[in-house]
Fold this protein.
Amino acid sequence: MATILCYGDSLTWGSVPNGGRYAVGVRWPTLLQEELGGTHQVINYGLPGRTTIWEDPFHEGRNGLAYIQAALETFGPVHVLIIMLGTNDLKRYFNVGAFEAAKGVEQIIHRARMKLEPGFPSPKIIVVAPPNITSPTGERAETFSGAVEKSQYFHQHFQNMAFANDVEFLNSAGILQPSEIDGVHLDVNGNQALAKELAPIVRKLLV
């Protein structure tokens, strides 16, 4: 039995677009485990607001780089690491774009490949470019001001970074759109689509 660690933000955690959290069986990491036939352990380590490398002044503990080694040692040995981060990097107060988000994921890859204290081997890695942000609503419209345009470049920069670092890549914008309710989070169909597309990539890495 292999361990697959899904390291992400609210899109992985399972935020419902109109508030709350999806039931366990609706979240894409759970659906991925089902797609794999239940023979492997898929761990959902999503956290709302998590960034790639940025310290959020309003939410403590959201720096993804700061916690990746602890996560790999806690749940290890991890055979496949799925990284899906970058959406929160586009919040207005970070003042960065998709290029910087991709560079942030690159730093997480480098940290994940460092020697782990228990002697665990480095995991194989899949990078998922987040879906394009469409029409943020409510408070998110202010928080993600300018992010709609910036998110259009996720695919390009994340793909280039993944190729340069020899990791698997999936462009989620090619298979799904965020919910029309808030323009950021995944709906039920989005969770299902992501799990189905990731399953064959994970299987290939576990051969």
User: Anything to note?
Assistant: The chain has one domain: 3-206. The helical segments are 10-13, 28-35, 64-75, 98-112, 139-143, 147-151, 154-164, 188-206. The mean pLDDT is 96.
